[in-house]
Amino acid sequence: METAGTPVCTNCEIHAEAVFRVEGMDCNEEVVILERRLRPLAGMEALSADLVGQRLHVSYDAAKLTTAAIVDAVGQTGMRMWLEHEGPGASGPDVRVRFWLTVASGTAILAALAVNGWSPSLAVGLLISATIVGGVFPTRRALVALRSRTVDINVLMVIAVVGAMGLRQWFEGASVVFLFALAQWLEARTLERARQAIRALVELSPRDAIVKRNGVEHRAPVETIPVGAEIIVRPGDKVPLDGRVLAGHGDVNEAPITGESLPVDKGPGDEVYAGTINGRGSLDLEVIRVGRDTPLARIIHLVEAAQARRAPVQSFVDRFARIYTPAVIALAAVVAVVPPLVAGSDPVTSFYCSLVLLVIACPCALVISTPVSIVAALSAAARNGVLIKGGAHLERLAHVRVVAFDKTGT
């Protein structure tokens, strides 16, 4: 269990924290489902989702709740979760798989339009295939939502498509699935690019270092090197851990950490940071900070925390969608049932109109575009060395009219 320190007993409560990896948490809708499932658990104190890192940070009362119970509760939603240090790395749906399924769906639709003139039955088969292939991931999300007794835009879309198939409106059903799958692929691709930005930060620091002990040099993983150990950084190598120079002189490129464009001369007594690049001289360092205490680790933590913070507009959209989507389904049911009963309208026509309402009223553009645009902006800024502490601060930039810079050589 990942903890933020030793659990403290206060008034017979044992406060603990854990970090989980969540497979299947690929959009804000899954985050909402997890929150609805976990918050009612006895002993649950707080939870925060890192959508980009596919992590769930949980604070709980260990006297009332266990990590196993939390994992089981998440399993009931159709997602899979494990403690970060115990299980394999998260392996959510591959963006390339989504891409090729979407391409296959679109290709089948185009082929159906091409052959419809001389073989309508083949065209119908192609459209059904396009619907099945393109609907794999949206249907999966809809099932996850229904398991959690939640009605979201995926459920709404599946209802509309099933209804269209029932009315033999093959092209309409396939088109809706393709467009929806395309939107979800764009969302997944944006998140994957954000994850790559985080991985690029992590890779700034090497995974091992040359440790000098009793005059003997050997390589060791950085996570096994304690404070006080002596390490050697050769010319051109990246600095693996924060350290103080014991011997040697060199010019160190600190741009990855501080943004300083010119190399900084380092000699005995000077500090160097993990992730910086040694120049022409060899340096003997005494390790002074490891793990999450290094500036690089804090930068990575800031970026991950920024991705997890919601902007006010995201919170508004979430609240809006929770009310709007069930209301649309209820209104569609009224459109399908009331006209035939009250005015004697054709039931098939009324049902078709209700399906049209479901499709045109689907708030997917609003719900998907808001978190994706914020995540894209935060990750793009991170790739360019700009750290924005969350969507709320990004949103506030829209009201900035004047920016003052104090140039001090950096």
Write a concise synopsis of the structure shown.
This protein has 410 residues and is of the alpha+beta class. It is built from 13 helices and 14 strands.
Structural features, described:
The chain has 410 residues and is an alpha+beta fold. Helix content is 50%, strand content 18%. The strands form three sheets. A six-stranded antiparallel sheet has the order 7-6-8-14-9-12, with no helix packed on it. Strands 1, 2, 3, 4 and 5 form a five-stranded antiparallel sheet that branches.
Distance between the termini: 41 Å
Could you say which structural class the secondary elements and strand pairing correspond to? alpha+beta
Sheet with most strands: 6 strands, antiparallel
The value of Rg in angstroms is 27 Å
Got a strand count?
14
Q: Into which percentage range does the β-strand content fall?
A: 15-25%
Q: How many helices does DSSP assign? A: 13
> Which percent range fits the helix content?
40-55%
Q: Order the strands across the largest sheet as they lie in space.
A: 7-6-8-14-9-12
Average pLDDT number: 79
The poorly predicted ranges are: 1-10
Q: H/E order of the elements?
A: EEHEEHEHHHHHEEEEEHEEEEHHHHH
Tell me the overall shape.
Answer: elongated
